[in-house]
Specification:
Strand content of chain A: over 45%
Helix content of chain A: under 10%
Largest sheet of chain B: 7 strands, mixed
Oligomer: heterodimer
Number of helices of chain A: 0
Helix content of chain B: under 10%
């Protein structure tokens, strides 16, 4: 079974600085999708960024980028120019691509604090 | 275009009562997923449904929990004879065609069992 591990329960960053959140996963599949979700205090799950495993290029969305290392099964999230609104729980998630395996497998999350 | 709707947002039940959680997917979405989030935990998959079909219920507890997604109306997650351990946030997500990689989440229902 696939597993997702986030080894940093909490992280903090100064406003305008850069922070990297770690995620590793375990799978025997060669094709899959990886995601980072943000959960602010409102508890709404918000998709931050996605990465298709077959793409070598790292995904980027404005201030958010990933470092996808397929061989190492690592998928870290970098937040540049951190803003107070970035404070939230961040969850790494995996989804297989084989038929029927539509479910998302989540890590336990990293709580990000942004200090003014 | 309205997002995924869940109601109620908060639900309080006494031990032994039934809890019914509703999820209306985004317009045009025919796939619904239910996840449970215990305190200080990530989301755990429970069940994946299409209209009138349960596709994957590998995450559902064997007893007391059931889910449906009828041809008309919202998806329902039902928990019978609730216990304190059922207290959690329950999230619904929806997507379009099978294979679509993006699931859109609702705001969740926080169930408290007293």
């Amino acid at each position: 079974a696939q597993t997702v591990t986030q080894s940093q329960p909490e992280m903090s960053v100064q406003e305008a600085e850069t922070v990297t959140l770690s995620c590793t996963y375990d799978t025997s599949e060669s094709d899959y999708y990886l995601f980072w979700y943000k959960q602010p205090p409102s508890r709404q799950m918000i998709l931050v960024i996605r990465q298709e495993a077959y793409k070598q290029q790292n995904a980027t969305e404005n201030r958010f980028s990933v470092n996808f290392q397929k061989a190492a099964k690592s998928f870290s999230l970098k937040i540049s120019d951190s803003q107070l609104g970035d404070a939230a729980m961040y969850f790494c998630a995996y989804r297989g691509s084989q038929g029927g395996s539509e479910k998302l497998v989540f890590g336990k999350g990293t709580k990000l604090t942004v200090n003014p | 275009n309205a997002g995924v709707m869940q109601n109620p947002r908060h639900l309080v039940r006494r031990r032994g009562q039934e809890a019914r959680l509703r999820c209306s997917p985004m317009k045009g979405h025919s796939h619904v997923y239910w996840y449970r989030q215990l305190p200080e935990e990530g989301l755990k998959f429970m069940v994946y449904l299409q209209k009138e079909n349960i596709i994957d219920e590998s995450g559902m507890p064997k007893e007391r929990f059931s889910a449906e997604f009828p041809k008309e109306g919202p998806s329902i997650l039902r928990i019978q004879q609730v216990v304190r351990g059922d207290s959690a946030a329950y999230f619904c997500a929806s997507s379009t065609l099978q294979g679509s990689y993006e699931q859109y989440f609702g705001p969740g229902t926080r169930l408290t069992v007293t």
